[in-house]
């Protein structure tokens, strides 16, 4: 697009954003959720935050969720013993008011916060939510350790908490290492010291929910219901249409001035599944934030990613961060063709990741030239040697596998979700490179993520596209995917590749038990190198998280995990202005557009 056209887009978007916001700017209590009321400390309570999900949710039940879209919804309702700080990703106590660790570093004692109540629901006597106790956490954590089909996190605490293995093997009726000492005291005993336990207990899969809800609705019914203790209460749940929330008037958290959280009156989530249409909705004051931009619009809207990071685009607020998020193509090892390491390596060498990021994604990403784990604090990412573009070597590896020039290699199908269209653009580029460099034919089949996930998890697909975003800021959240205990079985575990390596298991397990952080990260890097050497997957790129955000929205910090704490998000008052929207517009010749526009 010409520079003048870019200015038209930017000026138009800027004018629209000045006119939008969460409230009228006038205080008062008239039942209007959009109305803002100034509170102690200078912030405002009220306003309706309008967000969008480009994918339908797969489930809303904590242990059945392992995708970011479902997490962004259920995370408004459910809480656990810990949570992450939205700005720093530090782990802080949530429903655990405090905790202690004994001298062995293996026994954790948690004091449960008193007075916290579940949301009102018909599953309770009289429809009124009751107080949360240690028994509720015992009930939910035992289930998170189970082999139940509604639990996709069954391996999270295996070999971690005492008694989990016996519980899963049917040798015990409960997890021995999770003990209720009294109504407000819970004790967890570990097999070995584990510094990341608080991080693991901040995961959505460890959140608390009432047994009464399971008794009334069943695990299947809870896929489309949410009953928790969090800052928001669902008011509408229609997958693919709208999921809306209202403020929880009984929420326990307060800000530094003693104001009860959350600040927002409502949150409304739509399901616009085309990125261009989503951006149009943002321009038209129908959304307050867009996460991820249409590739073809990045330069038009932002100039360049470097300018955005430098804060040189002032027309609207842009947030950018190198995300703990990898995009990759997976191989199913039981597929006859992908059982040959030469084929898997050939696929990796045949793809020009730098060109993918530069030309297809317009710089919105970082080419994955090293390992599977993204760069993160303390992790020796650059010590892992990955795959550079080498079509000559790729050809020779295919010939070594018996498929010179692609002859005799069967046509494959790549399965993927569209993700607003960007995944299709990436796939078209990679499919073209595989055909050009290897002579391999690959068809493409798109499907919604709530259909794709079950098929991959059940081991039905041989070649697929996935993304994985960190559950907590530690390499283990990526590397556990390749542990043999995670081999896909019955739509639960997460080793979708059917990869089995005793050597890898040993190094990974040693890393989990290592207390020294530097040594632990070195072991993680060793495990990462094993994945690359075995060509288990095709790492493509690490995502750069980009948001466009309404400048009236505050304290909605971006972070590497796209972890969201909407309890602290708030609106500021709209500044009154005599500037008209069309005063900002110019035509392609640079001339102001008159009032007749």
Provide a short characterization of the protein structure.
By secondary structure, this protein is α+β, with helices and mostly antiparallel strands.
Describe the protein.
- With 597 residues, this protein is an alpha+beta fold.
- The chain is built from 17 helices and 21 strands.
- It has helices spanning 3-19, 68-74, 134-144, 164-168, 197-200, 211-221, 275-283, 298-302, 305-309, 341-349, 353-360, 391-400, 422-438, 449-457, 476-479, 502-513, 517-533, and strands at residues 37-38, 44-45, 48-52, 82-84, 91-93, 96-101, 107-112, 178-182, 185-189, 232-238, 242-247, 266-270, 289-291, 317-331, 366-367, 412-416, 442-446, 463-469, 537-549, 553-554, 570-571.
- Strands 13, 14, 15, 18 and 19 form a 5-stranded antiparallel β-sheet that branches. A 4-stranded mixed β-sheet has the order 3-12-11-10, with no helix packed on it.
- Helix 10 runs antiparallel to helix 12 (391-400) and helix 16 runs antiparallel to helix 17.
- The longest helix is centred in the first third of the chain and has 17 residues, at 3-19.
- It starts with a helix and ends in a 26-residue tail after the last strand.
- Residues 1-28, 488-492, 578-588 and 592-597 have low confidence and may be disordered.
List strands and helices in order, with pairings.
Blueprint: H1 3-19, E1 37-38, E2 44-45, E3 48-52, H2 68-74, E4 82-84, E5 91-93, E6 96-101, E7 107-112, H3 134-144, H4 164-168, E8 178-182, E9 185-189, H5 197-200, H6 211-221, E10 232-238, E11 242-247, E12 266-270, H7 275-283, E13 289-291, H8 298-302, H9 305-309, E14 317-331, H10 341-349, H11 353-360, E15 366-367, H12 391-400, E16 412-416, H13 422-438, E17 442-446, H14 449-457, E18 463-469, H15 476-479, H16 502-513, H17 517-533, E19 537-549, E20 553-554, E21 570-571
Parallel strand pairs: 3-12, 16-17
Antiparallel strand pairs: 1-2, 4-5, 6-7, 7-9, 8-9, 10-11, 11-12, 13-19, 14-18, 14-19, 15-19, 20-21
Helix pairs in contact: 10-12, 16-17
């Amino acid at each position: 697009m010409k520079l003048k056209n870019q200015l038209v887009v930017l000026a138009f978007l800027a004018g629209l954003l000045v006119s939008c916001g969460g409230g009228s700017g006038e205080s008062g209590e008239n039942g209007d959720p959009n109305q803002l009321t100034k509170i102690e400390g200078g912030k405002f309570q009220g306003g309706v935050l309008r967000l969008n999900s480009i994918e339908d949710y797969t489930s809303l039940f904590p242990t059945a969720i392992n995708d970011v879209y479902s997490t962004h919804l259920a995370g408004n309702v459910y809480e656990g013993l810990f949570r992450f700080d939205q700005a720093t990703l530090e782990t802080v106590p949530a429903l655990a008011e405090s905790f202690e660790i004994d001298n062995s570093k293996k026994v954790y004692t948690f004091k449960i916060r008193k007075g916290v109540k579940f949301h009102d629901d018909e599953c309770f006597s009289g429809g009124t939510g009751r107080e949360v106790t240690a028994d509720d956490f015992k009930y939910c954590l035992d289930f998170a350790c189970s082999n139940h089909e509604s639990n996709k996190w069954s391996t999270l605490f295996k070999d971690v908490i005492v008694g989990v293995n016996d519980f899963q093997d049917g040798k015990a009726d409960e997890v021995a290492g999770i003990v209720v000492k009294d109504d407000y005291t819970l004790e967890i005993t570990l097999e070995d010291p584990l510094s990341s336990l608080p991080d693991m207990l901040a995961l959505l899969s460890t959140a608390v929910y009432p047994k009464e809800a399971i008794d009334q609705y069943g695990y299947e019914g809870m896929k489309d219901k949410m009953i928790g203790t969090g800052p928001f209460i669902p008011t509408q749940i229609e997958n693919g249409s709208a999921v809306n929330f209202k403020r929880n008037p009984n929420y326990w958290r307060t800000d530094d001035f003693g104001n009860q959280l959350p600040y927002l009156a409502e949150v409304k989530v739509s399901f616009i599944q085309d990125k261009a249409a989503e951006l149009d909705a943002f321009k038209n004051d129908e959304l307050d934030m867009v996460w991820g931009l249409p590739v073809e619009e990045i330069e038009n809207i932002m100039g360049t990613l470097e300018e955005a990071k430098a804060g040189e685009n002032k027309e609207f607020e842009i947030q950018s961060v190198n995300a703990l998020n990898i995009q990759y193509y997976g191989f199913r090892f039981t597929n006859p063709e992908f059982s040959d390491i030469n084929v898997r390596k050939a696929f990796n060498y045949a793809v020009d990741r730098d060109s993918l990021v530069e030309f297809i994604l317009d710089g919105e990403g970082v080419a994955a030239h090293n390992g599977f784990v993204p760069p993160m604090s303390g992790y020796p990412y650059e010590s892992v040697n990955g795959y550079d573009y080498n079509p000559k070597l790729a050809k020779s590896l295919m010939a070594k596998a018996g498929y010179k020039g692609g002859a005799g290699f069967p046509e494959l199908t790549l399965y993927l979700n569209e993700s607003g269209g960007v995944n299709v653009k990436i796939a078209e580029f990679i499919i073209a490179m595989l055909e050009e460099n290897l002579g391999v034919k690959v068809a493409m089949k798109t499907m919604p993520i709530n259909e794709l996930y079950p098929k991959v998890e059940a081991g039905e697909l041989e070649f697929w596209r996935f993304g994985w975003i960190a559950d907590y800021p530690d390499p283990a959240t990526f590397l556990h995917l390749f542990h043999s205990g995670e081999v896909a079985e019955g739509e639960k575990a997460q080793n979708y590749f059917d990869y089995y390596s005793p050597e890898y298991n040993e190094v990974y397990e040693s890393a989990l038990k290592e207390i020294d952080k530097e040594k632990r990260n070195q072991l993680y890097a060793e495990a990462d190198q094993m994945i690359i050497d075995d060509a288990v997957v095709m790492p493509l790129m690490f995502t750069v998280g980009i948001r466009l955000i309404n400048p009236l929205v505050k304290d909605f910090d971006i972070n590497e995990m796209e972890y969201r704490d909407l309890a602290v998000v708030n609106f500021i008052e709209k500044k009154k202005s005599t500037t008209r929207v069309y005063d900002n517009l110019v035509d392609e010749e640079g001339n102001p557009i008159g009032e007749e526009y």
